[in-house]
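Example with several molecule types.
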Amino acid sequence: MTLDQARTLIAERFPGAQAAGDSPMVVTVPADVWVPFARFAKETLGCWFFSFLTAVDWKEEGLEVVAKIDNVDEKLSLLVKTRLGPGVSACPSLTGVYRGADWMERECYDMFGIRFEGHPDLRRILLGDDWEGHPLLKSYPVDAPHPPFR
Amino acid sequence: MSDVQTAADVRALRDAAPRARTDVPVIIRAILGAMRVTLRNLFRKPVTVHYPDKQRAYPDRYRGLLALVYDKETGEEACIGCRLCEYVCPPAVIKVEMLKGEKRNYAKTFTLELYACEFCELCVQVCPTDAIVMMKSFDLSTTDRRELLLDKDKLHAIGRQFEQSWATGNRLRDMQGPPKQARAVEHKEAAGV
Amino acid sequence: MSTIAPSTRVELDYTGSERLTMNMGPQHPSAHGVFRAILTLEGEQVVGIDAVIGYLHRCHEKLAETLTYAQYPSIASKTDYVAAMTSEFAYVRAAAMIGKIEVPKRAQYLRVIAAELQRVASHLLWLGTWCLDMGGALGGGATVFLYCIREREFILDLFESLVGARLLYGFYQVGGVRYDLPPGWAEQCRETVDFIDRRIGEYERMLEDNPFFLVRTQGVGVISRELAQGVGISGPLVRGSGVNYDIRRTEPYSSYEDFDFRVPVETGGDCYARYRVRMVEFRESLKIVRQALDRLPEGPISSRPGLKSVAQIRIPKGEAYARVEGARGEVGCYLIADGSAKPYRMKWRGASFSNLAILPHIIPGHKVADVVAIMGSVDPVFGEVDR
Amino acid sequence: MMEWLTPLIVPFIVLNAILGIVTYVTLLERKFAARMQSRVGPYRVGPHGLLQPIADAIKLMMKEDVVPTAADRPVYNLAPIVFLIPCMLIFATIPFAPGLGVADLNIGILFFLAVSAMEIVGLFMAGWGSNNKYALLSAMRAVNQVISYDLPFIFAALVPVLLAGSLRLSEIAVAQAGLWFVFYPVIGQLAFVAFIVSTVAAENRAPFDILEAESELVAGFRVEYSGMKFAIIQLGEYAHVVGASFLGALLFLGAWAGPGPEWLGPVWFLVKAMFVFLLVTWVRWSFVRIRVDQILALSWKALLPATLVLLIATAVVVVWRGTPGV
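Resulting structure tokens for the full complex:
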């Protein structure tokens, strides 16, 4: 699976997706094909290695979920992104495709408040259950005390 | 495969895992071999350093206690209160106030919260006058946290008390960076050599 | 940090005996830091585990947004404090990738030397603490532990004479490294490397065929190849499960392509296979250090002038994901720069975080004593798990 | 005139001597282990740490005695005593020199084995009474382990009994005047190894210390004990080890036999017992711990049949040679 082949395949199967760059190849997909794309990437492109999943807060433009997946054997490296849009904090869960997404999505929920639909056990992972707010949002100030202030 | 391994899976995997030989001679040899290693170490010299009685030798670049120094030639305080160290300090433990002077500036106050310092040496690195340096000193512990709030006088006192490490701002900047020769020449010219 | 223990999520064949919920950690002799495992037991058998992490959470990712590219590398050490060099490495690599900053050849070699010595030091600590988990502080485990610590000191001494610190180094900076080798360091390093090479043989004699060690490790905590690929573990864990994945090979960085080394792969997938992988890695790392010292080129150690002010390093708009092969696996840094002196967003991909996620999959079905053995073989560092 | 005092004075002297030995055995072990691990061990209290055991004792006496709220108080408080008594009683039958001992019973070794197995009651009480899950698991393990290792321990100890033809410990010692049983061809060595292994296991020392198992069970059955109660448990444990070492020296190493005048006998005995002790310690600090199911398997599947066969073989040899003794 060369890069060009992968790019063609992506263009064929997902017309809404934009692929750019090569190492890693940045693929931006609409949120509704987030899970189908991941399944396609795993099964067709052979990207079995789930490196990480996180989000970026683009302030007014809303949240963006980013996942890095690799085909280790053929050195194909994908950075898959999806824009959730302003004010939206729900995203389909990848746990059905990648088992490693379990903790990563919990962390992402913890830090950004993104609700991953279909996640089997979406709880906070790093912060306490009674923590208020989601620290990595840009609206969350660094230097003010936050409840529960301990 | 189901989402998690079940007990049956664990048992199957356990049985499928490769095993080492279980011949009695191999086992006996391995056991005696392990005991031989411990016996051999019984007769090695212990590596313990009896710390307060014997100080170990600090390497030249040791990053220890911070201090302010005096200019070697003029005997004046080397710090010009430029606040570069305050800006660069990642945990923000340095606070400097500048005192404007006629020929040069001074630090009016200089406080360093040593209890939060992480000894990254960035303040030494950016210091243009080599005023803040690190000392070859390890004994920082105290019974009172307030003693670790160092002001200017204390920092000067520390500078006189301990041996200075190798690193100063100019030395560090000379070592890094690509145009090494050119800058070395510059310094020589500036020093009037 | 969740305080609710959900009912055991894993149903194993129920033996009819009463279940016992046992709390392991967060302060526990073999928790390797602050880690809490809520175990559901049937007799001695574990039937469910809920891993609770986050006790050491410092929100490094938010912290990185408030610190400049010059400041953060020395803080990055604090994520993985056992192998502090690797996390710095990932960060400066990411920044250099966005800024397209060249790194001089000598700096690349110095980076490799430091990273490989760090791997040896980290593996030494792993071997020691793992044996401590299995052998106990009042038994043979403590002996191996102290031997390993004794040898690790020599590497820390090397680091100390190189950068002046023993734990948090700040050796890497964007565009190169901060310190050049002091006089005599290379010879000292060669001696240490040879010495540790000999001592590793001693550990192997203590453990290799030892039946006590073998029964504790063989067939314990088997990660099948499929499971390893599904969860996204990396480093010695995934190589112990028969997957040949080493970033130094698949995506060479910092002149790793210049060096001749072997990537060990074992197929067993159990604790013993992971032990074998790491023992070979010891030797291979020492080999790389020797090669790098032999071929160390002359030249500058940084492509950028020495740091003079906090905002000296500015990086254009862009994003990059840089990963390095740390002692525990893929340590990655996903950096988004917005053109200012501070990153817009940074994501740490801690190797231990992903590796630890394997625990709920492999621990059920084992005995209580195996929990610590498996956890030790995963080798988590909680600074990196919680960040 | 003062004869009625003898039964009081002799145990008093023996008890105190044992306490002294046991206290300093801890220092011996710590120094030995430290040197094995490239350390120096206790060093600060007194010259080369010689006063360390005394400092430890004082520290433990001064410590606050914490009782968990939910503990079963009578059981919790009684457990250290119940644990200590059998551990001290085992010294009753050991003759330290010809005629020097508390009671030279004609079933001496039987008494020793029976009483030493009693410690398990105290162990289990401690584990149960603490009302702690770690302690409970540890107590369960303890019962499992001690029962399974007492059998090989007894069988290994019975080999010298068969060879000597007596259950009286002093007679077993005398029977070795010509040849120490450890040098008895084949049988002696095998029995000695089996004895050492089962001693290590029955004393719950690494690699068989699953009930202490601080990597998973923190400190096992004594996790909730502090202060003097902890000290008593520790004392009992070391007394048991020392007792077993004395037994090993008596059964296999010819007890008080040795060069020099006769009054050196107890010294020789002590030296031999310490040799056995250091052997056990050496094993302890050389191996990783094995798991509870493996320990049980080792006992029932390997050690027990092996010692049983050894015992039968010894019996056959003894019958074949016609007379007991060497």
